[in-house]
Amino acid sequence: MRTIDLPKHTQAQRLRRSAPKAERLLWSRLKNRTLGGYKFVRQEVVGPYFPDFVCRDRMFIVEVDGATHSTDAEKAKDVARERFLRAEGYRVIRVQNADVYENLDGVCEYILMMLEERDTL
What we know:
- The protein is of the alpha+beta class.
- It has helices at 6-17, 21-30, 72-87, 97-102, 104-117; strands at 41-42, 53-55, 60-65, 91-96.
- Strands 1-2-3-4 form a 4-stranded mixed sheet, with helices on both faces.
- A hairpin with a 4-residue loop joins β2 and β3.
């Protein structure tokens, strides 16, 4: 059984409630095992981080990046975050807000392809 860190749990709840539109759109396609039968959770606590979407069974993370991820400072934070998550055994993919808005079906196909690719690695 997993233990709950109450302050982090509360922060994760806040993040879920205030999710950007792109995350809410993508969540509508990931929740309830609707994408290939894979179970995703939102804002799962992984160390000091709260990845956008996590498939625990597959150790797979989907991050949705908006415009704030284009500055040098944010890119450096993303690299450190991704390095930590990979060291924990997760595979991390990033998708852009614009792609979610303009091609949600394609984003979902990409996620499913990357999830199933793990079977062949």
